[in-house]
Each structure stands twice: as C-alpha cells, then as structure tokens.
Amino acid sequence: MAMATLVVGAVTPLVQQEIEELGGTVRQISETPTLFLIQLPHQEWITLTPADLDLDAPEDVQSIQEDISINSAHGLLSVHSKKWICRYRGHPYDVTRTELRALVDDFPIEVDDLFYQQSGHETQEAIRGRTLTPYEQHRWQVACASSTFPGNEKLRQAFQSWITFEALDAPAIRQALEANQEELATLPEEQALLRTGQIAKSLEAQAMHTYASLCLEDQHTIRQFELGLRLEAFQNGVLTPQEQLAALEDFGTGHFLQARPAVERSLRHPQPEMRLRALETLRLYWRLAEHLETALQWLHAPDPDIRRRALRCLNPGRGPIRELRVLSAFADMVADDGELPTLRLSAYDELLAATHKGLSYDLWMKMKHYLDTGGQFSQIPGIDWGLVRFFVTDPNRKASTYQLALHCSSWEDEQEWDDAFGHPFFSQAVVVAYLVHLQQLVHARLSHFQMTVSFAPLDSALNEGERAGEGSPGSGVR
C-alpha cells in the first residue's frame, strides 16, 4: 500500500502510538534540528468535507474536536475518529489530488539540501514581504523581558517558543539571520538559501519541542497571557485591521471573556467585517443570549454574506431549541421567494437542526446540485414544507397542522428511522426525544392542540407488546 510521508518537529508518545495503530511508522531522522519522519497508509488521509471544499455545509465544522495533533513547519496533521486530516498552510487538502502531494507523497526519506533550500527561500520571501507590526514588536519585547512570568524562566522561554513557531518570519528567526548576515553574504545563492533554511528550521524545531514539552495548564497560561496583551493593544488601537479581526476570533476560541466589553463595542465598528466577527465571537464562541436580537436584526441586512453569517449565529450549538423567534426566523427565510436559494437551503438545514432533525450529507448535496443546475427552490425534492409552514410567522393564524410519518429499518442489530423526506433519526431514543420536543414547541405556540402517535408493526409475527415498543411511529400534530 502507498505510504504518505510527513516530516515534523515533535512527536509525543500518544501520537506515535496512534500512528502505529493505524499501520504507520515514526522514526527520528535528525537531532539538530529535531525532526521525525512519519509514514501513513494513503487510505488513512481524509479532509473535512463538505465545508473544506467551499460548499455551504450543514455541519458546524468549528465544533469538530480533534483528538491529537502534530505540527510541521508548514502543515498540521490531526486525527479525528481514527481518520487523519492534513492542513497545509492552514488549508485542508486531500493528499491524492492537491499541491500537498508534492510535500507529502514525493518527500525524500531523508531531509536533504533541497528541503532546506526551499525552506530558506520561503523564509526570505516572508521577511522581504513585510515588516513586523508594532504589536508583534511589543509582544516580543515582553516575551524577552525578565519581568514576564517572574520566577518561572521555563514559562517565559516557552512563550518565546510559541511566538517563534507561529510564523516563518518570527522575531527570533529574523534576529538569527541578521546575526549570520556576514556569513550569508559571502555564500553563493543556493548555499545561502541552504544555510537560511537550516537556521530557520533549527529554531522552529527547538521552539516546537520546548512548547510541546509543557503541560496543558502551562500552555493555557501562555495563551491567556498573550490574549491579555492583545486585548490591551486592541483597546489602545495598536493592532492593524487584520490583527483586529484575528484578535476577535482568538478571543472567542480562547474563551477570553475579559475582552467582552471591547468585542461588544466592535458591533458598532464602521467596517462590516469587524461587526460580523464580533457577533460571531459573542454568539458562536461565547453563546451569549443577550446578542441573539442582533443576529435576528442582521437577517434583514442588504448584504447576503451578512445574512448568511447572522443566520449561523442564531443557533450556535445546532441542537434542538425552544426559542420560537429563532424557529420562525429560519422558516421565514426558507419561505421567502425573494431570498437567495443557497441561503434558503441553509435556513432549512438550520430549521431541521433546531427541531431535533438532521439533513444528511447526501441529501444536502442532491438539493444543492438541483439548485446549481437551474432547479426552482419551490420544487426542490426533500423539503418538508409542512414543517416550514408550521413555524412561518403568520399573525392571522388561528389553526395549524403538521403531519409526520416515520419509517424504521434494521441493520446489524441497529435501528434507523427516516421520515418521508429522507431526514434520519439514528435511534428510537432520538425519535422519542424529537416527539417530546415537538410537543413542547406546539404547546408554546398554540393554546389548544392535539397530538396523535400511532405504531405499525415491523413484523406480523410480533406480539402486541412488541408492536408498541418497536413499531414505526407516525404522528399528527394539530
């Protein structure tokens, strides 16, 4: 079987165990710098589809939890659900058909001069392409100050290491190259690139090893400390526009609630992207109910991208909810003939998630393909218009009806339930939870209602008691 190859700067025992269990191998190929060679069967590599293919995906990719990860100079190799994911320069790729193939499949077994020359070229290009921002300069000064983490020199050095492997043109790499400038200036171009790459990779590997050796608590301490520095710079107007956007997202992912006042003020920023990033931090990451109203208001913005991202902020957890305003907002967008079809489809997916249903990837892709090939949204196959109409805002409504029929199939001692539109319920417990949730929603909307649940036998040989417990339920909600 073909093996994919990746060179990394650090491998923990847990990572090595996981790799070997999947039929791969790990061996150290260099001490200075510290480098490991990892080889894995091709079949173990995947990407996080469909969102990584730039599709409007029903899944909330941000919620995916990775079990372990290992870093290289340019890539991140992660394992999730016993499958490996590779990102190259922040972008996920399938190694069988992308530019990552040149780095992974065709990578030499031993690190050679070409590797360092390529690294040297990339480092030089990064340094020539920009200067350090005022915040980057300030952060490095703080990291080098003896007053930072007083009494804990190991933590201060780890903070410097974290900054060093964060970017190709980190301050430590710049300083090292400046210190060797006289030597580099006397070398032919290829030799200068080789030496530049060796210096940069050595520092990166050492930095990665230092940081990886920390316990999770110390890594968290460093992360929170850096976010505090960034918040101060954010409030003082020191950050560049790009750094401001990154800071808002990192405040969210780091659950740095000390930044809440600054993030809330950003909701009134003159730049739309800043306002959106602030809302996403408050809702998607921190899930603050106080800002639900903002997301609802932005559903009516002229810009479709604002509407799309506001829609995602209505139900951050993508689980069952009882907030009728949100359910009606989803349904209203689905029913709006003037809305973009892709947004209507996203709203339908959100409505299903919020009512304890789900939209399978296969069905999602069929719907999207139907729209992409000129199909009308009103005629799209698989839309449960009864569910949509039940939650659409209608001040004149006096009565409402919603019919649901569920069908059960068994495979390998498991049961799976589907409704007439192909939406899956993966166990009878989920079916029961859905019916209970639906009853609660109906009760919140209507003062008088009737709910009927009937069971049909899976097998005529089943006795009456088995029929009641294992049948295929159909429910009418009125």
Largest beta sheet, briefly?
A: 5 strands, mixed
The secondary-structure class comes to: alpha+beta
Query: How many beta-strand elements?
Result: 13
Oligomer: single chain
Q: How would you describe the shape?
A: elongated
Helix content: 40-55%
Task: Describe the model.
There is one protein chain. The protein folds into 4 domains: 3-104, no CATH class; 113-214, no CATH class; 287-391; 402-477, no CATH class. The chain is 48% helix and 14% strand. The chain has 20 helices and 13 strands. The chain has helices at 13-21, 100-104, 113-129, 134-144, 153-164, 171-179, 181-185, 189-212, 216-235, 241-253, 260-265, 272-285, 292-298, 304-312, 324-335, 341-354, 361-372, 385-391, 428-445, 464-470, and strands at 3-8, 25-30, 35-41, 45-46, 68-71, 75-80, 83-88, 91-92, 402-411, 414-419, 424-425, 451-456, 472-477. The chain starts with a strand and ends with a strand. Mean pLDDT is 75; it is low at 42-110 and 457-478.
Distinctive features:
478 residues, alpha+beta, five-stranded mixed beta sheet, five-stranded antiparallel beta sheet, 48% helix, 14% strand, elongated, disordered C terminus
Provide a brief overview of the structure.
This protein has about 475 residues and is an alpha+beta fold. It contains 20 helices and 13 strands.
Write the layout of secondary structure elements.
Layout (H helix, E strand, L loop, with lengths): L2 E6 L4 H9 L3 E6 L4 E7 L3 E2 L21 E4 L3 E6 L2 E6 L2 E2 L7 H5 L8 H17 L4 H11 L8 H12 L6 H9 L1 H5 L3 H24 L3 H20 L5 H13 L6 H6 L6 H14 L6 H7 L5 H9 L11 H12 L5 H14 L6 H12 L12 H7 L10 E10 L2 E6 L4 E2 L2 H18 L5 E6 L7 H7 L1 E6 L1
Parallel strand pairs: 4-7
Antiparallel strand pairs: 1-3, 2-3, 5-6, 6-7, 7-8, 9-10, 9-13, 10-11, 12-13
